[in-house]
Amino acid sequence: MKRRLIWGLIALLVAGLALAQAPGEKQPSVIMAPVGNVQLHPGGSAKVELDFRIDPDFHINSNKPRADYLIPTVLKLNSPEPVLLVDVKYPAGEDMSFAFSPNEKLSVYSGDFSINTVLKAPATAAAGTYPVNGELRFQACDRSACYPPRSIPVQFQVTVVRK
Amino acid sequence: MLKRNAIVFVMLVVVIMGMLAAGNYLDRSRKHGPIKLVGDVHNVPAPDFELSTIDGRRVKLSDFRGQAVLLNFWATWCPPCKIEMPWFVDLQKQYGKDGLVVLGVAMDDTESAKIAEFTHEMGVNYPVLVGTDQVSDDYGDVGSLPTTFYIDRNGTIVAKAVGLLGRQEIEADVKRALSTPYKPAVEQPSREAAKVKPSQAKEAAR
Prior knowledge:
The complex is a heterodimer. Chain A has a four-stranded antiparallel sheet, with no helix packed on it. A four-stranded mixed sheet of chain A has the order 2-12-10-5, with no helix packed on it. In chain A, strands 7-8-4-11 form a four-stranded antiparallel sheet, with no helix packed on it. Helix content of chain A is about 10%, strand content about 45%. By secondary structure, chain A is mainly beta. Chain B is built from seven helices and eight strands, in the order αββββαβαβαββααα. In chain B, the strands form two sheets. In chain B, strands 1-8-7-4-5-6 form a six-stranded mixed sheet. Chain B has a two-stranded antiparallel ribbon with strand order 2-3. In chain B, helix 3 (about 110-120) links the parallel strand 5 (about 100-105) and strand 6. The interface between A and B is large, with 34 and 42 residues.
């Protein structure tokens, strides 16, 4: 009983220390919410909102960062025939300054953000389900360090339905 | 019964102290704002490397034996790295005569000409090397930038900093690196032997 208790306490201590990871060791993450069923009629178009969430400790550059040397967030989508990607609208970045550069404002996304796309199907499009694949490329920083650019997959399906 | 309670009490105190120490460690980094020092790596030999400079010269770390080296991993897309650069320029000017060499290792995935353009704009007065995955691995997988190693005259790492530090802290680490006398007889390990492993670094930090 005593031994079990001691091991339990030691495990607690180890867990506590593990939580106290050294700054800079946590890697940034951006995740994408699943996209619901997207339906298109031949000759019609559909708006598709892609929702992303950035880990609370990090921010990423917006699609239009304020300096040439910064890496913008970019969505690349490969729309399969016959579906066409006709528009991608990025949200405006939030102008923020950080402790590492209080006099410089950076245009960033943090928390949740959405990218709006518009897909179209030509009038001749055959009915069926078409996979849309792509990636979101971003470069993240926290309060004092930055992390190499990364990409996450973006995948959803579009169903062309004849009227 | 009383004895068991005493043991439980002592263990609880140990756990709480551990938690407090951990909390204090995190809080300290928050109070310092952007500061993120990731432990000391005392007495770990700096892995040797040979890299190209942005103007095409080949440079080995061991070429600088006898001098203290500030080895700064950075990238053009890294705003905190940009903040440090003018400080490194000043430190190179101030301590160059004492044997300090600042070496920048650019971890950009871009051509040297663009890096050169950036460093020219920043007025960089020290060699900038083109980083590779190999050198990143050798230095413990440099995953966040800036990461800076302070290496003494004998090729031993005396400090490592991840993230932006204040200028005073950087200067203090430079002084530490400069303070060790050069011992030419010290034999340096091969790259394999000198690879900085996370476990080794943690061990050294204790």
